[in-house]
Each structure stands twice: as C-alpha cells, then as structure tokens.
C-alpha cells in the first residue's frame, strides 16, 4: 500500500499510476511526496520517499519546451512530474520498468506527436529512451510499429470503421470484463437482442448513406459472435451491406466454430477470422474458465485455414500456473501453424472480472520474460509488430502487441488504436467515436446492460442520428 502527497495537487491521478507498479517491490507501506516548482526556464520536482523509518529525497530539474500553446505547456509539465516520480522510485528500488515513466495506453501516440512536430524518425527510439526512460527493446518496438503502420493509416474524414457487438460466449473467462453473457444461461435474451441489434444496424447504414460516410472496415466482436446459432449469425451478416472492405469476425472460442458457420461467414464477405486458444495448456485453460481443449483449437484453425480466411490467433502471457515453457510452446506452435496474425496479450486484472474479485490475484513473475521471448521469437520468424496498446492493472506494466506476416496487417486494429478514423458502433456496450479536424474526439456509448439494451435501445437511436450528423458540434 502507498500514499501520494503532491504539492500542488495537480496530476495526482497520473502520479498514482506512476507509483502503483513499484508497490510490489517495497516491503512496507510507503509515502511518495512531490513538490513541484517552476520558473521561466525550468521545471523542478522534489520527491521524498518514506518507508518505515527510512526516508530519501531526490530532485530533478528539466528544461522547459519552447511552446506557446497552453495545453502543450501543461502536458510537458505533467510529463516532467511523472518522470521525476518514476526516476526517484526506480533509483530507490533498483527497478527499471520496460516502459519507463509512460502510463498511457497508446505509446505510439507519443511517437507520432514527436514525428509530427518535426522529429527525426531515425532518432525516435533514442527520443523515447531519453525523454521517458523507455527500455531500448520497447523503444525499438515502437519504431518498428510506426514503420509497419505507415501505408495503412487513413486520415480521410469521411471514412469510418463499422463495429458490431455480440455479447454472448459459451462461458465467461475469469479475466474477462467485456459486456458478455453465458449463451446458454441467457438463451431467452439472444433472439430479442438480435432483433434490436438488426434495427440498429439498419439505422446505422442509413446514417452512413445520409452523411456520405465511406466504410473502411467492418469488425464484429464480442463476446463470441460464433456463439450464435447459424441462422442468427446469417441474419446479422446479411444485415451488413458492405462487402468489398476488410471484414473481421471474432470466432475467438474454437469450440463455437463449425464448417457451416465458416461457410456463412465466407458467403457474406468476411475476410478475417480470430481463432483464439489464449494458451494450449489444458490445465491453464481449465483454470481460466475456457471450457474447451487444445484439440478444439487445432481443429477450428484447420477449418478456417481451409476456408481461406486470414487468421488471427490470440495468446496471453502471465496466466495462472503458466510457466515459461508453456508460453514458449504456445508461441512456437501457433507460429508453426502459420497464423497470419498473432496477438500477444499481457494478462490484465480488470474490474468486473472474476479474477479481480478472487481472494488471490495471480502474479506471474515470468511475464516480462514471456513478452520478451514473444518479441524476439516472432520477429525472428518473420512476423512484424504492427500495433500495440496497454491497459491499467496489466502485469509487469507491460503491453499487448499485434504481430503480422507482411501484408496481413488488420487496418481496423491500426486505425482504431491510433484513433485516425471515426467508429460507428452497434450493440450493447459498443462505443461509437467521432474524430474531428484537429484531433478532438467525442464518444457515444450504448447501454452496457444487455437487458436494458433490448428494452431501451431503440429509444436511443435518435441520439445516434444527431451524433453522426454533419451538423453535430460541441
């Protein structure tokens, strides 16, 4: 446990995130006290760390950036405070975190900010190391991702991604916090949900046509969309009129995939499928509540490959009872199968998950080594890192990384993570997004509760029409 004291009190929440990863490295309750000062030329941050009877003081001075914009000034001031707290705790504990003082979910945004302000791309990795204490491996990772994304980014203001959410799964994984229900237990809600969802899809298609939007990609996620019976799946896909675009459907649970469902997907224009084991170890699968066997994954992967889909496979590092050997086997096996994309997630203990509420939270001390192995092993095998994001409560303060074979990048993943395209979203818990000139972003959230979505979803369509109209302003 720790306590933050900041004088002045600005940036309290950001500094709390900076301190949290060090909690495990200290034996006692501790206090981090920050005093911030500035003059015309410099920021000075004085940090005091108190642990029991031990107390240590640090002082960090950083030159100010020469900018006129007040928001940018405040941003640089906050970064100086965060870096000072990180450096003090790092020196105090002897621990260097892979992402240094960065706590945001999209490190690539900092890279693009640097480049858009005239930075030299060949000095990008060096900039991240010097300015934020990012490790050389992660700094190089960001450089490689920026290179892989360049030709896939789309800044066209009329282009949108179209997202549809199916909130049903065969069972709920212990780490999951998404809007999702057990398909069998919620069986009576499935058809009413699809009825409202279809109306929202039709409504959204009218919005797209009326406002002159051009759909860049379609993504159907969940939950597990392939939990649906074949005819319900057919109804959803038939309602989507966009055929000649990148079209992804998550079929994450291999025990829901059949040749009939894959044929329906192919018939309606789906080009990409996710087939996700998370791990191939039977014991770990059982521990995390995935009620399928490794053989189910191999069978589903073979069916999807035969049907001609681009296949993404998700793996998770840091699961309970997952050894380094287990994880290495997972990575080596899916690469040998020839998955077009491999997304490697660091386990995140999220609010709303069963794992978060358990008496003993998992703490896998090999997680960073697992992620380092994935980076090294997959790049050696010809996979390219092409998108990355981070989450709160992620083990080891690490990351999620999408790897791809050259030419198989998922445009939706890139444009969604980098927030370059607006998103029109349908379904319970789906979050729409408008991206305006200058980078301003507005969001529109659907009702998260599936029952409320069924009962009240139609009443909220008018908000969607206004939100996506060309007259919408804040």
List keywords for this structure.
alpha/beta, 474 residues, Double Stranded RNA Binding Domain, nine-stranded mixed β-sheet, 17 strands, four-stranded mixed β-sheet, 2 domains, TIM Barrel
Describe this structure in words.
The chain is 37% helix and 22% strand. It is of the alpha/beta class and 474 residues long. The protein has 2 domains: 1-95, Double Stranded RNA Binding Domain; 153-426, Alpha-Beta Barrel (TIM Barrel). The strands form 4 sheets. The protein has a 9-stranded mixed β-sheet, with helices on both faces. Strands 1-2-3-4 form a 4-stranded mixed β-sheet, with helices on one face. The protein starts with a strand and ends in a 7-residue tail after the last helix.
Q: Provide a count of the helices.
A: 15
The largest sheet has its strands arranged as: 13-14-12-11-10-9-8-5-15
- CATH fold topology of the largest domain: TIM Barrel
Mean pLDDT: 91
Largest sheet: 9 strands, mixed
Computed CA radius of gyration, to the nearest angstrom: 23 Å
Shape by Cα distribution: globular
């Amino acid at each position: 446990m720790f306590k933050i004291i900041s004088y002045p009190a600005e940036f309290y929440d950001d500094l709390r995130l900076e301190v949290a990863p060090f909690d495990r490295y200290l034996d006692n309750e501790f206090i981090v006290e920050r005093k911030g000062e500035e003059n015309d030329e410099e920021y000075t941050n004085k940090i005091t760390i108190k642990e029991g009877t031990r107390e240590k003081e640090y002082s960090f001075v950083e030159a100010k950036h020469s900018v006129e914009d007040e928001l940018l000034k405040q941003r640089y001031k906050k970064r100086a405070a965060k870096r000072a707290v990180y450096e003090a705790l790092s020196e105090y504990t002897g621990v260097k975190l892979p992402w240094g003082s960065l706590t945001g979910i999209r490190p690539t945004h900092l890279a693009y900010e640097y480049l858009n302000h005239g930075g030299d791309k060949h000095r990008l990795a060096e900039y991240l190391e010097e300015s934020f204490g990012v490790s050389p491996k992660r700094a190089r990772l960001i450089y490689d991702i920026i290179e892989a994304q360049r030709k896939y980014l789309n800044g066209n203001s009329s282009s949108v991604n179209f997202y549809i959410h199916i909130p049903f799964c065969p069972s709920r994984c212990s780490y999951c916090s998404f809007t999702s229900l057990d398909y069998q237990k919620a069986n009576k809600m499935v058809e009413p949900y699809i009825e409202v969802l279809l109306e929202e899809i039709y409504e959204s298609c009218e919005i797209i046509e009326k406002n002159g939007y051009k759909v860049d990609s379609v993504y159907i996620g969940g939950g597990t969309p392939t939990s649906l019976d074949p005819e319900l799946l057919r109804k959803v896909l038939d309602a989507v009129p966009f055929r000649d675009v990148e079209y992804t459907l998550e079929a994450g649970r291999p025990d829901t995939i059949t040749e009939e469902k894959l044929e329906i997907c192919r018939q309606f224009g789906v080009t990409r499928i996710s087939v996700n084991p998370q791990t191939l170890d039977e014991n770990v699968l059982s521990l995390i509540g995935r009620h399928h066997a490794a053989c189910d994954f191999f069978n589903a992967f073979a069916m999807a490959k035969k049907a001609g889909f681009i296949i993404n496979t998700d793996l998770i590092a840091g699961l309970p009872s997952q050894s380094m050997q287990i994880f290495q086997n997972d990575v080596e096996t899916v690469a040998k199968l020839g998955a077009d994309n491999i997304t490697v997630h660091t386990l995140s203990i999220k609010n709303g998950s069963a794992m978060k509420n358990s008496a003993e939270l998992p703490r896998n001390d090999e997680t960073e080594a697992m992620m380092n192995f994935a980076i090294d092993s997959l790049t050696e095998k010809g996979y390219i890192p092409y998108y990355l994001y981070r989450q709160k409560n992620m083990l080891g303060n690490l990351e999620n990384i999408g790897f791809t074979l050259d030419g198989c990048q998922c445009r939706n993943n890139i444009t969604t993570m980098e927030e370059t395209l607006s998103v029109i979203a349908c379904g319970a818990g789906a979050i729409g997004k408008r991206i305006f000139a200058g980078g301003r972003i507005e969001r529109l959230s659907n009702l998260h509760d599936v029952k409320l979505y069924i009962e009240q979803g139609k009443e909220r369509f008018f908000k969607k029409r206004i939100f996506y109209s060309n007259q919408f302003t804040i």
